[in-house]
Design a protein that fits this description.
Number of strands: 0
Strand content: under 5%
Order of helices and strands: HHHHHH
Distance between the termini: 66 Å
Radius of gyration: 24 Å
Shape: elongated
């Protein structure tokens, strides 16, 4: 692939436009950079959520400790936890309600389902 003088001139014009855009409105660039960082954090947090065994976690903690643990998640993350654990749809938009719903469901399933299956083995 050969790069011509015209290619370099066009690239220079593009760089000039980018430079002017940055100079005129640096907030746009900051917003773009921050949105990328937030997107990466959300992706990492999603992987963390998927890799967590919430049932095992609930066996080792009491209700107060579980509330403290789940408080670190925001509403979207709590709804994602409900989705991946297949707890069904929950219309609540309250963090406290979602948090309590998750804890109740985890405790029920740990007690009613998983321990019963482990005994039968």
């Amino acid at each position: 692939m050969n790069i011509s003088k015209k290619d370099i001139e066009i690239f220079g014009r593009v760089l000039k436009e980018i430079g002017e855009s940055i100079t005129n409105d640096p907030e746009k660039i900051l917003a773009l950079i921050n949105s990328k960082k937030n997107s990466d954090k959300q992706l990492d947090r999603g992987k963390e959520i998927e890799g967590t065994n919430f049932y095992e976690l609930s066996k080792n903690k009491n209700d107060v400790e579980l509330v403290d643990y789940f408080k670190s998640y925001d509403i979207k993350e709590l709804k994602y936890i409900i989705k991946i654990l297949k707890f069904g749809y929950n219309r609540s938009k309250s963090k406290e309600t979602l948090l309590q719903y998750i804890i109740d469901q985890i405790k029920k399933r740990t007690t009613d389902v998983f321990r019963e299956h482990n005994v039968k083995k």
